[in-house]
Each structure stands twice: as structure tokens, then as C-alpha cells.
């Protein structure tokens, strides 16, 4: 995983369905190229292969719940997203939480498959536990701020600082990124000043009227770092 990084989660928003997912991903790719910064996108499973075939920036899966392909109706395997073209995966988002044992197995499988692994966690202590599983990054996201427009970097900076300190002390090879309520380039800049190595966000970019302009604003604080 190249750091610092801006990860844009498309969730299941209608604005990122079908070919619209490609349009947003291409806007992100343009920003990445122009600013020389790392931007990754995480489309829904339905658009994952299409987006991965359409852009050269990292494309992450939004999750997985089983390790290997098999008789798992309506489930998604780590190996499946790798085959679809994903270069990374987000696990344990607050909207798709996992049990600890399952999370440990999925992290191990994803790393073995060569995927960048980002594990989400709601608070510093849970982030520390997540870091112990060996992902490339932990994304601390207080769930009560997700989608509110109240940026974690402004409304709960102490959560970010404590997470950075804990993880860096015990697992220095695991990066800390943050998310929840990030809406502006100013919010991203604040997160980086708190010691994070990137930001995970969704609606600010996906629901923007001008995707390119908004992603450019959000990614600009990463330039030169």
C-alpha cells in the first residue's frame, strides 16, 4: 500500500451504480495523475470488475465474508474479489462488521492473496486489536460520525491521536488512516496533521455534483507528503 492515501468508498450509492462508478473512478484517476498522489476507489461488488478493468489506480473491494470460493450462496470470497481485479480490500466497516475470528482469517487470506488490507475500527482500543491481526492499515472511524458531515478530525481529534499513538507504539508497520464525516480538503488536512497516513471517505466524493473538482479538493492535502 502506497501512503499517504485517499480511499473513496462508493458504498451502494445510486450515484455510483453501473457506468457511473467508472466515471467517478476515472475522475479519481485523473486527480491521482495530476497531483501525483495515491487515490484508491472501492466500488460495490457489482461494479468491481468493470471499474478494475477501466482504471489504473488501486481498486479495493468493500469487503468479503468467506476466504475461498465454494458453496456459499450470496457470500463473497476473498479469492473472488482478487479474481475480479481488486488490489485491496476493506474489512470490518461499521456497516459490515465481522466477528473477530472471521476477521483474523480474512485478513490472513487477503494478505496471502497479495491484497492491500484495510481494517476498520470504531475506537483506539479496537484499532489496536485490529492492528494485531496484521493488516496494512487500520481505519479508525467512530460510527456515530459516519455520513454526518461532522469530521472525525474536528469533532473527535482525540480519538485519532490516541489511535495513532497506540498503533504506532505497538505495531509500527501498520498505518493508521481515519474517516467518518470527512467532507472537505480542510478535514483531510486536519486528519493528516493529527498523524494519520490517509483518509477513508464516501459521500463527500460520490454524491458531489462535480466529482473531479471535489476529489481534487479532497486529495490536494496529500500532495508533497
TrEMBL record:
Involved in the gluconeogenesis. Catalyzes stereospecifically the conversion of dihydroxyacetone phosphate (DHAP) to D-glyceraldehyde-3-phosphate (G3P). One of its GO terms (cellular component) is cytosol. This is Triosephosphate isomerase. The active site is at residues 93, 141. Substrate binds at residues 9-11, 146, 181, 202-203. Its EC number is 5.3.1.1. Belongs to the triosephosphate isomerase family. Keywords: Cytoplasm, Gluconeogenesis, Glycolysis, Isomerase. Pathway: Carbohydrate biosynthesis; gluconeogenesis; Carbohydrate degradation; glycolysis; D-glyceraldehyde 3-phosphate from glycerone phosphate: step 1/1. It comes from Thermoproteus uzoniensis (strain 768-20). It catalyses: D-glyceraldehyde 3-phosphate = dihydroxyacetone phosphate. GO terms for biological process: gluconeogenesis; glyceraldehyde-3-phosphate biosynthetic process; glycerol catabolic process; glycolytic process. It is found in: Cytoplasm.
Amino acid at each position: 500500500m502506497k501512503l499517504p492515501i485517499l480511499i473513496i468508498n462508493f458504498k451502494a450509492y445510486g450515484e455510483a451504480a453501473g457506468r457511473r462508478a467508472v466515471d467517478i473512478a476515472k475522475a479519481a484517476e485523473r486527480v491521482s495523475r495530476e497531483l501525483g498522489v495515491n487515490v484508491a476507489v472501492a466500488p460495490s461488488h457489482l461494479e468491481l470488475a468493470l471499474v478494475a478493468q477501466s482504471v489504473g489506480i488501486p481498486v479495493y473491494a468493500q469487503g468479503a465474508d468467506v476466504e475461498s470460493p465454494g458453496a456459499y450462496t450470496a457470500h463473497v470470497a476473498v479469492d473472488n474479489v482478487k479474481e475480479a481485479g481488486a488490489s485491496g480490500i476493506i474489512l470490518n466497516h461499521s456497516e459490515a462488521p465481522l466477528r473477530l475470528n472471521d476477521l483474523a482469517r480474512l485478513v490472513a487470506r487477503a494478505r496471502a492473496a497479495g491484497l492491500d488490507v484495510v481494517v476498520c475500527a470504531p475506537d483506539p482500543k479496537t484499532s489496536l486489536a485490529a492492528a494485531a491481526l496484521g493488516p496494512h492499515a487500520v481505519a479508525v472511524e467512530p460510527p456515530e460520525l459516519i455520513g454526518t458531515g461532522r469530521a472525525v478530525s474536528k469533532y473527535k481529534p482525540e480519538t485519532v491521536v490516541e489511535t495513532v499513538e497506540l498503533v504506532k507504539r505497538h505495531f509500527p508497520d501498520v498505518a493508521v488512516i481515519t474517516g467518518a464525516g470527512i467532507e472537505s480538503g480542510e478535514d483531510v488536512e486536519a486528519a493528516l496533521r493529527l498523524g494519520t497516513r490517509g483518509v477513508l471517505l464516501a459521500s463527500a466524493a460520490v454524491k458531489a455534483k462535480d466529482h473531479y473538482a471535489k476529489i481534487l479538493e479532497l486529495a490536494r492535502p496529500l500532495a508533497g507528503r
